[in-house]
Amino acid sequence: xxxxxxxxxxxxxxxxxxxxxxxxxxxxxxxxxxxxxxxxxxxxxxxxxxxxxxxxxxxxxxxxxxxxxxxxxxxxxxxxxxxxxxxxxxxxxxxxxxxxxxxxxxxxxxxxxxxxxxxxxxxxxxxxxxxxxxxxxxxxxxxxxxxxxxxxxxxxxxxxxxxxxxxxxxxxxxxxxxxxxxxxxxxxxxxxxxxxxxxxxxxxxxxxxxxxxxxxxxxxxxxxxxxxxxxxxxxxxxxxxxxxxxxxxxxxxxxxxxxxxxxxxxxxxxxxxxxxxxxxxxxxxxxxxxx
Length: 291
Ligand SMILES: O=C(O)CCC(=O)C(=O)O
Ligand SMILES: [Fe+2]
Fold this sequence. Notes:
Layout: E1 4-6, H1 11-21, E2 23-27, H2 32-49, E3 62-65, H3 68-71, H4 76-79, H5 82-92, E4 99-109, E5 135-141, E6 153-154, E7 174-175, E8 183-187, E9 192-193, E10 203-212, H6 221-224, H7 227-230, H8 235-240, H9 282-287
Parallel strand pairs: 1-2
Antiparallel strand pairs: 2-8, 3-4, 4-10, 5-8, 5-10, 6-7, 6-9
Helix pairs in contact: 1-5
The structure holds 2-oxoglutaric acid and fe (ii) ion.
2-oxoglutaric acid binds next to strand 9 and strand 10.
């Protein structure tokens, strides 16, 4: 069964359910008006570009749009939400100095759409390491999610299975049923998928996925959100978009012209710049007795 918490839940509780079940829903996390605003900002691009990504996996009655932060500045409040960041810290920081946005996508499932195949989102990466999650998905409801209209299907407990090993029982899926302004969090290894929409109204969600900072994101966020767009947002969100190196010192990955990309002038969070980059430095060699 999918566990539901409400917006009073602290990050530790959300993380602990996420770790044990692989998925957790938090209802009423933002005001419904924010969901309405983001939906209104996305509307023109959903209408004009939404069916460009039709395929067997995405569905032919599902509008998708990925350049979310070009179009919908209000979505920053969801992508960069404090609870999401706190939970992502818990998921990723044991395995990386930082993490970043993997993809953003508005997904509008129209009436008559069938179930999307259940899947895990981390299969874009050809590695599978017990205990290390590669991605975290956060699906925000921008309209009410119901069992009838295709609220995301999730399989609690399905994250405990290495894909190289065996497949979990997928028959016990649950729809995420939640009012607009809620979010369902699922680990990259958790099986899930869009639901069939048997209602007569669209179901609109915004799914934000994050990945370990040393991985290549599924979507090229520098093209989706180039510097002239990214600069409209705050330092933490710019870092999440990849405009910050992973780690520090000699262990930097993704650096550009020094410690930080030129136009990101302040480290977004000192804890992310945690001096792990000591291996390989002169000081490290000296400390090893290498003179
Ligand atoms: O639309 C949904 O509820 C989920 C979509 C999804 O999981 C995907 O496209 O990877
Ligand atoms: Fe997915």
